[in-house]
């Protein structure tokens, strides 16, 4: 069975391998430098996993006691955790060492976990029904309990590493599948696999006591030397998210450690969950606040328009009802008809046409009167609606809740990036012996949450966040949001990402501000034209439109935001220049790393704090104006009610006087 991929013109051969006792596995043969890892799982009919475990190491010729420990770790710990997490195992696939232990553990316990072995085809004895005679080959056998294989077209050990980590990169970075690499024993090839894991940001669990590379890395972590000569080991120690687990510890502890890495119940993932909740609720309150303000502005403009339109209709209606209107026009035309020297038939025809015309004119008057009454109803309702919306804005206070939640979300985000960059109080230099980074992060998150609950946000329900973690729209490209960051990665994923945001935002704000300024000037020019055309009545509408544009710009703090963004962008550019000017030795100094991270976070906080203070002032002014407007609406209603009451008294008095006059006449 073969499959073709048309874009790269690479032929992929899918075959079925048959092992002893009738066990079968699907095997996909791929070229050495196959560049479409997203196709591999689908062609093997492996559904997208919820998690993944990369198994790295050797563990041949183990001592009997150590082999027993490892066997229990695999059967009761590793394989069980993977089955519960619906994880995919990615291994070397050979029938030796830890791959054999894993295959037997999964098979003995009846787990349905998919085992994917990736190995060079030329180094292994591939048993198929057509070549079972090769069973006596001196090549290494494939592990028979694996469910799937990817056979790389090569005869060199290590050639499969590229395909293995292209697939891991696709799962971890693009499909956001949580992965963990498990190192047991291991040699030079395992060292390269661990390096690739570290560079992708995949956490590594090192089983201390299993020998060779695993013990070497555990020693370097627990007793770090002043200098590591091996460049690969130095990079792994410096940049990797490494977790040391002693082979003598309990199976349950290893199971729990794997759960923490795959299920995401780590402190960092909890931090992202807290950020996502605050961020989503901030956006919800912002949306409510913006919609209410938009409706209030539009109703104000609409009310002005309807009042002007009603006034115009009343003016025309009053003209039609005067003696210069329909009656005068009818008299004048009848006079002309009498003066016209035409026969009786022609005069009758003209009279009928004129009669129809005046009937239509009277209907138009009736229609205009109905329109005026309808407009009066709407003009009466609009202030009531505005008053209701203003009361809702004051009662629910979505604007202040939006700002408070946004401030808390940004505070959590600053903690996350400082933690990931291991800077400030998260750095090794400032950590106390009885504290861990996770403990400090948890305390900081607790403090932020406690401060938030002291505000008016506590009076409303926070909706839970059910999406992906970390939220996709908060991360830079290729940043998984969970791995620790070197200074270089922090520069790319945090500083430069925010710099690009500010630069793009300033361009958008500048264009929008210029467009609104031009709109205001154009509407002002139209108002001048209306005044020149003696249409002063409609100038009030242009005034209302200009007031709406001004209110919109003030609510969005467009000019203030533009200044803040420009200042923040300039500060970040200066900080980037300072860092790039440092020598390699200076960039490795923890003090300079702390300066880079903390100064960048300070710039971002200063920009947000300035914007927030401006928004609070604006909301305060807006609230005062809206309360004043509500008071004006109440006063206007009171005056209208008094006027109606006075008119009703006058009508009643007139009726009484008319009644008395009628009685006197009788």
TrEMBL record:
Pfam families: DUF4231 (PF14015), LSDAT_prok (PF18171), SLATT_1 (PF18181). The keyword Heme does not apply. Residues 632-666 are annotated as: Disordered. Residues 632-650, 657-666 have a biased composition (Basic and acidic residues). Keywords: Membrane, Transmembrane, Transmembrane helix. The chain crosses the membrane at residues 294-313, 377-396, 515-531. Residues 53-245 form the LSDAT prokaryote domain. Residues 490-611 form the SMODS and SLOG-associating 2TM effector domain. One of its GO terms (molecular function) is ligand-gated calcium channel activity. It comes from the Bacteria. GO terms for cellular component: plasma membrane. The keyword Transmembrane helix applies. This is LSDAT prokaryote domain-containing protein. It comes from Thioflexithrix psekupsensis. The lineage of its organism: Bacteria, Pseudomonadati, Pseudomonadota, Gammaproteobacteria, Thiotrichales.
């Amino acid at each position: 069975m073969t499959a073709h991929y048309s874009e790269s013109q690479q032929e992929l051969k899918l075959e079925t391998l048959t092992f002893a006792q009738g066990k079968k596995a699907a095997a996909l043969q791929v070229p050495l430098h196959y560049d479409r890892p997203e196709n591999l799982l689908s062609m093997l009919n492996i559904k997208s996993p919820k998690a993944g475990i990369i198994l790295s190491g050797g563990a041949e010729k183990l001592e009997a006691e150590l082999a027993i420990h490892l066997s229990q770790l695999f059967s009761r710990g590793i394989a069980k955790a993977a089955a519960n997490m619906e994880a995919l195992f990615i291994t070397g696939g050979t029938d030796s060492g830890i791959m054999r232990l894993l295959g037997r553990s999964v098979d003995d316990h009846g787990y349905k976990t998919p085992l994917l072995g990736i190995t060079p085809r030329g180094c292994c004895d591939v048993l198929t029904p057509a070549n079972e005679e090769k069973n006596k080959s001196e090549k290494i056998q494939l592990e028979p309990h694996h469910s799937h294989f990817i056979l790389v077209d090569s005869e060199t050990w290590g050639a499969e590493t590229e395909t293995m980590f292209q697939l891991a990169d696709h799962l971890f970075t693009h499909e956001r599948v949580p992965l963990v690499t498990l190192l047991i024993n291991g040699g030079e090839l395992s060292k390269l696999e661990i390096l690739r894991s570290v560079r992708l940001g995949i956490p590594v669990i090192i089983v201390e006591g299993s020998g060779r590379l695993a013990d070497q890395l555990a020693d370097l972590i627990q007793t770090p030397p002043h200098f590591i000569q091996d460049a690969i080991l130095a990079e792994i120690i410096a940049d990797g998210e490494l977790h040391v687990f002693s082979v003598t510890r309990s199976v349950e502890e290893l199971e729990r450690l794997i759960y923490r890495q795959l299920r995401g119940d780590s402190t960092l993932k909890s931090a992202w969950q807290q950020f996502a909740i605050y961020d989503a609720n901030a956006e919800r309150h912002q949306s409510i606040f913006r919609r209410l303000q938009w409706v209030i502005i539009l109703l104000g403009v609409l009310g002005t328009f309807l009042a002007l339109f009603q006034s115009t209709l009343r003016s025309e209606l009053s003209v039609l009802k005067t003696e210069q209107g329909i009656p005068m026009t009818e008299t004048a035309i009848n006079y002309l008809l009498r003066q016209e020297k035409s026969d009786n038939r022609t005069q009758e025809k003209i009279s009928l046409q004129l009669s129809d015309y005046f009937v239509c004119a009277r209907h138009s008057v009736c229609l205009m009167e109905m329109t005026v009454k309808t407009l009066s109803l709407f003009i009466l309702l609009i202030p009531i609606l505005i008053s209701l919306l203003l009361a809702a804005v004051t009662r629910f206070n979505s604007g202040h809740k939006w700002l408070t939640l946004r401030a808390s979300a940004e505070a959590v985000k600053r903690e996350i990036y400082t933690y990931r960059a291991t800077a400030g109080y998260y750095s090794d230099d400032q950590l106390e012996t009885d504290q861990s980074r996770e403990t400090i992060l948890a305390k900081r998150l607790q403090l932020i949450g406690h401060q938030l609950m002291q505000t008016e946000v506590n009076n409303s329900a926070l909706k839970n966040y059910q999406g992906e973690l970390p939220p996709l729209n908060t991360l830079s490209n290729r940043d998984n949001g969970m791995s620790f960051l070197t200074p270089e990665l922090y520069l790319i994923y945090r500083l430069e990402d925010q710099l690009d945001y500010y630069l793009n935002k300033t361009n958008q704000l500048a264009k929008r501000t210029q467009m609104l300024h031009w709109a205001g000037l154009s509407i002002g020019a139209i108002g001048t034209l209306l005044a020149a055309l003696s249409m002063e009545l409609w100038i009030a509408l242009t005034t209302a439109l200009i007031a709406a544009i001004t209110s919109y710009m003030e609510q969005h703090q467009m000019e203030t935001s533009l200044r803040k963004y420009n200042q923040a962008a300039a500060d970040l550019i200066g900080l980037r220049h300072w860092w790039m000017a440092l020598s390699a030795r200076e960039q490795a100094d923890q003090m300079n790393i702390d300066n880079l991270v903390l100064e960048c976070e300070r710039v971002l906080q200063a920009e947000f704090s300035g914007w927030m203070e401006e928004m609070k002032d604006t909301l305060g002014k807006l609230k005062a104006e809206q309360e004043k407007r509500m008071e004006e609406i109440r006063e206007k209603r009171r005056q209208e009610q008094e006027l109606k009451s006075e008119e009703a008294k006058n009508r009643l008095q007139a009726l009484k006087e008319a009644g008395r006059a009628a009685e006197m006449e009788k």
